[in-house]
Design a protein that fits this description.
- With 205 residues, this protein is an alpha+beta fold.
- Helix content is 41%, strand content 16%.
- The chain contains four helices and six strands, in the order αααββββββα.
- It has helices at residues 3-13, 21-50, 54-74, 182-204, and strands at residues 101-102, 114-117, 126-134, 144-151, 168-172, 176-179.
- A six-stranded antiparallel sheet has the order 1-6-2-3-4-5, with helices on one face.
- A hairpin with an 8-residue loop joins strand 2 (114-117) and strand 3.
- Helix 1 runs antiparallel to helix 2 and helix 2 packs antiparallel against helix 3.
Length: 205
C-alpha cells in the first residue's frame, strides 16, 4: 500500500523543476533502488510467512527493514537530524577494555542477541541482530561476514512509543560484540582468571 506513495514522493519531492537537477536525479535513483529492494523483499516475506519458513522470514524482514531505513534517509524523511556523523570522537580517550562486552573469542553473536558496535563510525551504539549474512547463504556453518542490526531508539531522529527512531543498519560482523550485564561480567572474569591461572601453571611447571 505504501509503495505507490513512495514512488510518488520520489518524483514530486525531487523533480527537476526544484533545486539542482543533478542532485535530484541522483536522489531519485537512490530512492527508486531502495523502494524496489523493499518491494522484492516484501514479496519474499509474504511467501516465507505463507510457507512457514522461519529463516526466510527473518531474512526477508531484515532486508525489508534495511531498505526502508535507507529510503527514509535518502529522502530526508526522518523527523529530526542527528548531527553526530561519527561517535568515535566520544571514545578517543576510552580503551575498549573499559567497555562492557563479551569478546568474539568467547561468544559469537547470533540473531536476536543484543550487541555493541565496537568499531566504525557507530562505535558505542547498542542494538539487536535481526539477520546474519554468511559467505554461503545456504550453509549455516559458513563464515558470517555481516549483520543487520536494529539499533536502540534515537530520540534525536524522531519520537515513537519506544522513545525514538530505531535505525536499521548493516555492519561487518567483526565490528560487533555481545553486551553483558553484571552477572555475565562476573562469570566472564572468573573464566578469564581461570584460563590465566592455567596458562601460568603451564608456563611455570
Amino acid at each position: 500500500a505504501f509503495l505507490p506513495l513512495m514512488e510518488y514522493y520520489e518524483k514530486e519531492a525531487f523533480s527537476d523543476g526544484v533545486g539542482d537537477k543533478y542532485v535530484n536525479a541522483a536522489t531519485r535513483d537512490s530512492l527508486s533502488f531502495y523502494r524496489m529492494q523493499m518491494s522484492v523483499n516484501l514479496d519474499r516475506l509474504s511467501k516465507a510467512i505463507e510457507n512457514q519458513k522461519v529463516r526466510e522470514v527473518e531474512e526477508a524482514f531484515a532486508k525489508t527493514s534495511l531498505s526502508y531505513d535507507r529510503f527514509l534517509k535518502a529522502g530526508d524523511l526522518y523527523q529530526g537530524y542527528d548531527p553526530v556523523t561519527s561517535t568515535t570522537v566520544f571514545f578517543k580517550n576510552i580503551s575498549d577494555d573499559q567497555l562492557r562486552y563479551t569478546p568474539l573469542a568467547l561468544q559469537q553473536p547470533q540473531i536476536r542477541d543484543e550487541v555493541l558496535v565496537l568499531q566504525g563510525p557507530d562505535k558505542g551504539k547498542v542494538g539487536r541482530i535481526i539477520w546474519l549474512g554468511r559467505e554461503n547463504g545456504d550453509d549455516l556453518d559458513s563464515k558470517v561476514l555481516s549483520a543487520v542490526v536494529k539499533l536502540e531508539p534515537n530520540p534525536v531522529l524522531g519520537s515513537s512509543k519506544s522513545g525514538g527512531v530505531r535505525e536499521v543498519k548493516a555492519y561487518p560482523y567483526k565490528w560487533l560484540v555481545m553486551t553483558r550485564g553484571s552477572n555475565e561480567s562476573y562469570i566472564q572474569d572468573l573464566v578469564l582468571a581461570t584460563l590465566a591461572a592455567i596458562v601460568s601453571c603451564t608456563v611455570t611447571y
